[in-house]
């Protein structure tokens, strides 16, 4: 792989999706040359100050018509969730509907996922953290329709458990069903891109803050050490600190 300047999609063995809900940030990544899709979620929308969900989604789809974009349902009631999903799916052909693996009561979303997939809706099954959930989700999907199995590897790692064995097994299971792709979600650092590649995962979602660090790829560590020393020196100098 070349260094972090002027990268393109061919420089990675995995598809990188930008994870965010700020239109300007999404467009920045759209034009960066190495992004293959986009995901959003309610937490990111809250952070970005989105006040009209459909308006935001339609604007994103207008500006980014040729990459997959994932938009999430909001309801905790499965009947309403289905109505939301069908509406989201009507917005554009490149939409993937994000359905959580359960609602807040821990009730399984599998019946709804199965129904929507059978009706031809492309889905992003989200908030998955166990291999049992992976297996349940894959088994209910209609082959060839299109779906992402979104495993929150970063949240798994937050518990002190290495997510890589889970992600490797997820990748193997997803490859058995046509157009079902494995997705490493909740990336915590740039290294996760390369870990996901090593696991054979199809997609990783990464926030813009982390994606901006791609300029460090291939950087000489001695040079990075010097830059770090300079940063500390300049920050201390700007504060006027003195010891003697």
Question: How would you describe this protein?
Answer:
With 244 residues, this protein is α/β, with parallel strands linked by helices. It has a single domain (9-218), classed as TIM Barrel. Helix content is 43%, strand content 16%. The protein contains 11 helices and 8 strands. Strands 1-2-3-4-5-6-7-8 form an 8-stranded parallel beta barrel, surrounded by 7 helices. α6 (131-139) runs parallel beside α8 (164-174) and α8 packs across α9. The longest helix has 19 residues, at 221-239. The protein starts with 14 loop residues before the first strand and ends in a 5-residue tail after the last helix. The relative contact order is 0.13.
Key attributes of the depicted protein:
244 residues, TIM Barrel, eight-stranded parallel β-barrel, 8 strands
Contiguous helical run count: 11
Report the major sheet: 8 strands, parallel, barrel
Number of domains: 1
Secondary-structure content class: alpha/beta
Oligomer: single chain
Give the low-pLDDT segments: none
| CATH first level | Alpha Beta
β-strand percent reads 15-25%
Q: The CATH topology is what? A: TIM Barrel
Secondary structure tally: strands: 8
Radius of gyration: 20 Å
**Gross morphology:** globular
CATH architecture label: Alpha-Beta Barrel
Distance between the termini: 47 Å
Order of strands, widest sheet:
1-2-3-4-5-6-7-8
Helix content: 40-55%
Overall mean confidence score, pLDDT: 95
């Amino acid at each position: 792989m070349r260094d972090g300047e002027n990268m393109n999609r061919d420089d990675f063995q995995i598809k990188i999706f930008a994870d965010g809900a700020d239109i300007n940030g999404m467009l920045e990544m759209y034009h960066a040359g190495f992004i293959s899709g986009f995901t959003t979620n309610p937490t990111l929308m809250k952070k970005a100050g989105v006040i009209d969900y459909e308006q935001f989604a339609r604007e994103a789809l207008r500006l980014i018509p040729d990459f997959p974009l994932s938009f999430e349902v909001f309801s905790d009631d499965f009947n309403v969730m289905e109505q939301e999903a069908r509406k989201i799916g009507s917005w554009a052909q490149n939409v993937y509907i994000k359905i959580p693996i359960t609602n807040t009561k821990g009730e399984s979303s599998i019946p709804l996922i199965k129904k929507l997939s059978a009706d031809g809706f492309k889905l992003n099954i989200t908030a998955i953290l166990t291999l049992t959930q992976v297996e349940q989700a894959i088994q209910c999907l209609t082959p060839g329709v299109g779906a992402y199995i979104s495993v929150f590897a970063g949240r798994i790692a937050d518990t002190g458990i290495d997510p890589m064995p889970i992600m490797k097994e997820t990748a193997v299971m997803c490859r058995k069903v046509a157009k079902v792709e494995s997705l490493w979600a909740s990336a915590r650092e740039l290294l996760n891109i390369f870990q996901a590649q090593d696991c054979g995962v199809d997609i990783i979602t990464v926030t813009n803050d982390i994606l901006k660090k791609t300029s460090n790829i291939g950087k000489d560590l001695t040079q990075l050490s010097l830059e770090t020393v300079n940063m500390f020196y300049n920050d201390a100098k700007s504060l006027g600190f003195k010891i003697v």
